[in-house]
Specification:
alpha+beta
Amino acid sequence: MIDRLDDRIMEILKKDSRRPFVEIANELEVSEGTIRSRVKKLLDEGVIQAFTIKTSSKNVKALVEVKIEVNVNTSEIADRIAEFEGVSEVYEVTGEEDIVVIIDVTSSPQLNEIIERIRRFDNVESTRTRLILKEHFGG
């Protein structure tokens, strides 16, 4: 069960996953051992799945909305798309489209290749691509 302390630890780690446990402990006024054991528990339970980085690259980033035919296993298609190199995130969503894919590549031809691979799936009805012009990160 996740409590307020776990939430606060995760918020700090979302902003800087390399932040030393001792600094987190000082900020939250608990021991470093408490932070270490809480993070281990969150990892063991799968609440925290990975520590990642954000870069300030000049990559081409896009949001691709994918519409799937009715009565098709959306999760299976989403899992296959998630394996493509250059795909950073995949979400199953409600609405007109069924899957949202975030692509982060170094060139437009690479972006186009991933979109074409997605369109080649038998059950993909359509795609809609939006280039990401600017990112804003919440705190």
